Amino acid sequence: MVTRRKLLGLGAAGAAVLGAGAVAGRSVLDDPPQAHASSTADPVPFYGEHQAGIVTPAQDRLHFTAFDVITDDRAELVELLQEWTAAAARLTQGKEAGSFGAVGGAPEAAPDDTGEALGLPASGLTLTIGFGASLFDERFGLAAKRPAQLAPLPKFPGERLDPAISGGDLCVQACAHDPQVAVHAIRNLARIGFGRVSVRWSQLGFGRTSSTSRNQVTPRNLMGFKDGTNNLKLEDAALLNDQLWAAAGDGSPWMAGGSYLVTRKIRMMVETWDRTSLAEQEQIFGRTKGEGAPLGGKAEFDELDFAAKGPDGKPYISDVAHVRLAHPSSHGGARLLRRGYNFVDGSDGLGRLDAGLFFIAYQRDPRRQFVPIQLSLARHDVLNEYIQHVSSGLFACPPGVRDAGDYWGRTLFEG
Fold first, then answer.
1. pLDDT (tens digit per residue) in 243-259
2. What are the residues facing 265 on neighbouring strands?
3. Structural domains of the chain, with CATH
4. 1, exposed or middle or buried, with CB in 10 Å at 0-12, 13-18, 19+?
5. Does the pLDDT at position 21 exceed 80?
6. pTM of structure
């Protein structure tokens, strides 16, 4: 009997063929690699030392999804990761998810691409995978390889996390300049994973809230302030090696070249914020709302001077201003690479917008970076009067896929 998986060419052999880019004619995967897409329509290279979608200049749209693995068969999980990798290599280059595409297969079989991105360019799509702590239980023999960096995050003061939209065995971050391209990618990975994974939760995002390259202007969050002015940038090679990329000596050699991802869904009480005076808003952030300059300064990228005082003799930037509490000087130099997104998920039963920031941050070790920074903010930041953390995720994002013979997580399962 020919199974559906074999019919669609998604078995192990099919994955190898897809991974090699064996399609009729010259494959887009064979094009000379670029460091990054040169326009919003162009593809971003899939293969490399690190996964795309981390230091890649942040795109405008997000579809982030966490999955639970519903098989206990290690071989099935590895096969899925191989199939996902082959599909991701195609999707990120503007191709369809499988070699038969949306209309090229047998009429009596379901297509191996859902088709809603037909005719659309690659739109800078990147797909980034991560492994949650729950994947390292007894099911797949991975317990000994669980990184210490995946230690559970502490309970932070004031958070009200919903378990239904937190955690997950796997996550996939899809970023693109076209929301339909990002949604199409996640939809097809979920389709390929049917019977082996189920969607635990997902989040759509729009309007990046950080710049990951010096070629990008600083965007604004839904509170109207420029966000991520002092973010790590892809041009900061030495800082990235120190603060972002995991190394073989960090305790989990299979993660060398990877990074650790923290997600937080942060709801903003925008109606209350909108009734707050401009002066108070600026004092809370420690920056001007228009230019984004530190208080006491003139331009967005002026150095933060926490000792500078105003005519009243008080510091321009208070001890509890957001920029002071989050600054590397307050945390032994710890920094994050942020690439979060705004979200609006309709309104609640009281007619208030369900809106805010889907926070995404990559780092070398959450225990030394995100945790101390967030503890300080949770304890002292006046901004907490206007925000609520409602979901949380922590994932180990492995190194990049080297070539068509490699796959997501190979270093974990075969290393």
1. 999 999 999 999 999 99
2. 358, 391
3. 57-120+165-206 (no CATH), 209-401 (3.30.70.1030)
4. exposed
5. no
6. 0.90
Which tokens in the block code for residue 226?
A: 């420029």
pLDDT band, residue 188 (cuts 50/70/90) = very high
Tell me: the pLDDT tens digits for 49-96?
999 999 999 999 999 999 999 999 999 999 999 999 999 999 999 999
What confidence category does residue 294 fall into, taking pLDDT thresholds of 50, 70 and 90? very high
